[in-house]
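okkk here we go again. third time trying to get the zinc ion bound version out, last two times i messed up the smiles copy paste (missing a bracket lol). double checked this time i swear
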Amino acid sequence: MNANQTKDFQSKLKIELDSVRCEFLNELKDAQHEFTGELASMLENSTPGEWIDLAVTKINPNQFPRFQRLMELEAALCQIDIGQFGYCCDCETKLDLLELSKDPAKQRCPVCEEKKRKKLQN
Ligand SMILES: [Zn+2]
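finally!!
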């Protein structure tokens, strides 16, 4: 992958991250639970970089697909920063460019994805 392609993925990821943050915040506000309302105001009073650390203290990420997506997007952006973007996070195989263009937050090659899926089922 060349630098321009990485840049394109980076801007795609950032755009999606912005909208997912916004949707997640609205979801929390609409949920009408005390803890989600509390979390929403905590998040509004902090920088987006602190969101993940704050949110995991209040919610179970498994129950909030948007929050899971937010974590995936941040992980992918972090991989760009450290030069690991485009590689499987488990076996470091190069990821397929076409697959990445479908989902730039993709973290694993098909083999490791399958392994992880099986692990989660057990
Ligand atoms: Zn892999």
